[in-house]
Amino acid sequence: MEFIINGESSDVVKMIIVLTLISVAPFLLLMMTCFTRIIIVLSFLRNALGLQQTPPNQVLIGLALFITFFIMQPVLTQVNETALQPYNDGLIETEEFLDRASVPMKEFMLKQSTGDEVEMFISLSADEAFEAMEAEDLPMHIVVPAFMTSELKRAFLIGFLLFIPFLIIDLIVSSTLMSMGMIMLPPVMISLPFKVMLFVVVDGWGLLMKTLVMTYN
């Protein structure tokens, strides 16, 4: 086994880095990719339809993961070409690998972050040096929370828009049952088939997937 010679990373160091990345991979997936927005929107959709466990959590998480990989493919390809491959070939050291890998991720997060969130965390940091920096030069502890805040804001906005058509159906069904004097019949029981039928007729899954992907273009 090869050890650190002349400042170069050994196989042991590479193994430690790989194990570290694997251990923090779930947190990186949540904090630095589009997974959070997608899973929240899918959860809003299930609640708007009035379904408790359909689709089950495993299906929603799996769907959100594959959509995340689809959206993040250009970024991951850039990370592989500019950082991972040179590092595996021994052309760069660990510190430069991390710097190169963070550039595409930072560009992606800044593209999806609004200026208000970035400025908010710059002001909260109380470091005047950040105010003079360009956006791409900001450190990760500013970019990541700004990105997460923007993702949550957009996810809740999409969720609100998803609720509107299903809420209208609930109101129509409830008013109809009330006018017919059928106050003992739960409106949810009647409106659920209509909401599912509407979602299927308009190709709701396809429209939702298309909309989510297009929000990152």
Describe it.
This protein is an all-alpha fold and 217 residues long. The protein is built from 9 helices and no strands. α2 (35-49) runs antiparallel to α3 (57-88), α3 crosses α4 (94-112) and α5 crosses α7 (140-179).
Annotate the secondary structure layout.
Layout: H1 11-32, H2 35-49, H3 57-88, H4 94-112, H5 115-125, H6 128-131, H7 140-179, H8 187-201, H9 204-214
Describe the structure concisely for a colleague.
With 217 residues, this protein is mainly α.
Tags for this model:
217 residues; mainly alpha; 9 helices; 0% strand; elongated; disordered N terminus
The strand count comes to 0
Strand content: under 5%
Helix proportion range: over 70%
Oligomeric description of these chains:
single chain
Derived structural class? mainly alpha
How would you sum up the global shape? elongated
For the report, how would you describe the main beta sheet?
A: none
Q: Give the integer mean of the pLDDT values.
A: 81
- State the low-pLDDT regions, or none: 1-9
From the N-terminal CA to the C-terminal CA, the straight-line distance is 45 Å
Cα-based radius of gyration, to the nearest Å: 23 Å
The ordered string of helix (H) and strand (E) elements is: HHHHHHHHH
